[in-house]
Design goal:
The protein has 142 residues and is α+β, with helices and mostly antiparallel strands. It is 26% helix and 45% strand. The protein contains three helices and seven strands, in the order E-E-E-E-H-E-E-E-H-H. Strands 1, 2, 3, 4, 5, 6 and 7 form a seven-stranded mixed β-sheet that branches.
Length: 142
């Protein structure tokens, strides 16, 4: 049986085109802030709630016209069996007016990096592609 999950997250930039925020997860990978949709939430509310919970960032602006998603499968151990999870993550592009981060206990560290360096640091190829699309979107807005 396949379990379907949906999460939402953000590509957070400080002074668009300059730097983006990456979080270091306990499993060892570098990724964007994201999390599961809770009952009654839409995608944007989820992305903004998760951003605040994971980083403490509140003073942000959603940059219009950017909504990208990734889809992947993974296996999760549950009790004495494994389940296949089909996961979709929807990302929005936001500008932060603050660089001060208070990471949650879900993460080990954070880093602000220029887009090109962030792409090198990110662990997963599909997330690298989201960040490259975000950079193209920002370049079009200039």
């Amino acid at each position: 049986m396949t379990i379907h999950e949906k999460s939402c997250g953000t590509v957070v930039c400080y002074q668009p085109g300059a730097e983006i925020l990456l979080l270091h997860y306990p499993e060892g990978h570098w990724d964007l802030p994201k999390g599961h949709i809770e009952e009654g939430e839409d995608e944007i509310k989820t992305a903004l709630r998760e951003l605040e919970e994971e980083t403490g960032l509140k003073n942000i602006k959603i940059l219009k016209g950017f909504k990208e998603s990734i889809h992947y499968f993974f296996t999760r151990k549950k009790a004495h069996e494994k389940e296949l999870v089909s996961k979709t993550v929807v990302f929005f592009l936001v500008k932060s007016h603050d660089r001060k981060i208070k990471i949650s206990d879900e993460h080990q560290d954070f880093i602000w990096l220029p887009f090109d360096e962030a792409v090198k640091k990110i662990t997963f190829k599909n997330v690298k592609e989201i960040v490259m699309k975000a950079k193209k979107h920002i370049d079009k807005l200039k």
